[in-house]
């Protein structure tokens, strides 16, 4: 069974920084895309940033220049470095992976979510 475990959320003041991590574990054959989504209260879940197996990245316009996504393929881990945080970045952040498992085929997987709160 495949699991995605996130860490690194918390409370930070406006202008501050946080780094999120997400490690995938289980019967993984290969990981194609990894990324981060977020969902604020009363809003739909939205893509924040994504990175494919080749290292190509995609960012939401609202975070370009402030957030950086990266991955360590040897550790099956994706990171999100968030700088210059704003109150509107407050949300639950979810890790996503589109990967192939030895026993479950190729599917989308989600982490449990980690809260990021930006407030003074």
Average of per-residue pLDDT values: 96
Biggest sheet features: 7 strands, mixed
| Rg estimate, integer Å | 14 Å
From the spread of the alpha carbons, the general shape counts as elongated
The termini sit apart by 40 Å
The total of beta strands comes to 11
Assign a percent range to the helix content.
under 10%
Strand % is over 45%
What's the helix-strand series?
EEEEEEEEEEE
Low-confidence stretches: none
> Which structural category do the helix and sheet elements fall into?
mainly beta
Number of helices: 0
What is the element layout, followed by pairings?
Blueprint lengths: L2 E5 L2 E3 L5 E8 L2 E12 L6 E6 L5 E3 L7 E6 L4 E6 L8 E11 L3 E6 L3 E5 L2
Parallel strand pairs: 2-11
Antiparallel strand pairs: 1-3, 3-8, 4-5, 4-9, 5-6, 7-8, 9-10, 9-11
């Amino acid at each position: 069974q495949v699991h995605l475990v996130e860490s690194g959320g918390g409370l930070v003041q406006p202008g501050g920084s946080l780094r999120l991590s997400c490690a995938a574990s289980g019967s993984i054959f290969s990981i194609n895309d990894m990324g981060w989504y977020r969902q604020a209260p009363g809003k739909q879940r939205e893509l924040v940033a994504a990175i494919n197996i080749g290292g190509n990245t995609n960012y939401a316009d609202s975070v370009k220049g402030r957030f950086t996504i990266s991955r360590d393929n040897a550790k099956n881990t994706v990171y999100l470095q968030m700088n210059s945080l704003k109150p509107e970045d407050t949300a639950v952040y979810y890790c996503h992976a589109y990967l192939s498992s030895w026993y479950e085929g190729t599917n989308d997987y989600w982490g449990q979510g980690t809260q990021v709160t930006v407030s003074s």
